Amino acid sequence: TGQELTADFDARIAAHQRIEPRDWMPEGYRSTLVRQIAQHAHSEIIGMQPEGDWLTRAPSLRRKAILLAKVQDEAGHGLYLYAAAETLGVDRADLTQRLIEGRQKYSSIFNYPTLTFADVGVIGWLVDGAAICNQVPLCRSSFGPYARAMVRVCKEESFHQRQGYELLLQMMAGTPAQRTMVQDAVDRWWWPSLMMFGPPDADSPNTRQSMAWGIKRDTNDELRQKFVDMSVPQAVALGVTLPDPDLAWNAERGHHDFGAVDWAEFKRVVSGGGQCNAERVSRRRAAHEEGAWVREAAAAYAAKHQGTGQG
Ligand code: 3HC
Predict the structure, then answer these.
(1) Signal peptide: which range, if any (predicted)?
(2) Which residues of the chain have pLDDT under 70?
(3) Fewer CB near the terminus (10 Å): N or C of the chain?
(4) Which pTM was predicted?
């Protein structure tokens, strides 16, 4: 009966067992996962644009090769996540349509412009650093395909963060102009990176249920705090100042206190009013439309060679 199925599902969640695609699951569990995994995938794909803008302008062949590898990785992360979403009965073409029509979200962080090459380093250090803080716990998410996708994503994210930090160390050892570029990029990306973790727990409609279902293992504020605590010593080692005068170690709490996030800016960017929202979505639409012939050719080839073993 429905009650027995629900009781069995709840018992598996309580025992921290994985839920697999063929297992019975409450409709709300499925729809929350589709929402979160699809938006996570959209974020990876949209996230290729800000750094992709610097591929043709990287200052050296080495930097170009590293950046190319990172941008390709993000495409792969999107692929793993769309594949994980499809185990829940949705289709990636439909999810892409929802993204393009603004019916599904992607991370606010990618609606900020990358003004100098130092932004590429700061994105690696802070944005991928925040992503690591958020994605490591997701390796223990209760839904099997999502958790398994995260294991590989996290391995690649640590390369992303390390290459960004190394790029910044090099620039900080460079000219005063390079050091100024790095500080300027830190000033522009610090607060938007804190917004990646979502609204405060008190304003998060999904956190409580997602924690109960083991989809999230930590709350938005817990992960944001962890990220701040991780970033402060890294900023000191780099020789940059984080743009928050209220940032201070609180020995009683054993954490850093930090200033108020501008949630009005967060809401504006999430609802489409950021600096790059229109550009990011229209470029995604253009890529989808211009790439239609590739999809059609691949489908025609597959149909022609169905069952011949060639492919
Ligand atoms: N940007 C855009 N929308 C956001 C957001 C952000 N930074 N933070 C929250 N939101 C949205 C939520 O999606 C939700 O809207 P919805 O119900 O329409 O989906 C609403 O704001 C309320 O937020 P909640 O906290 O209640 O929502 P969640 O429980 O889903 O928590 C989240 C938000 C922490 C982002 C969670 O969805 C999550 O952990 N997602 C997986 C990780 C992810 O998507 N990371 C995005 C970064 S991309 C990335 O890491 C790529 C790397 O290579 C840089």
Answers:
(1) none
(2) 309-311
(3) N
(4) 0.96
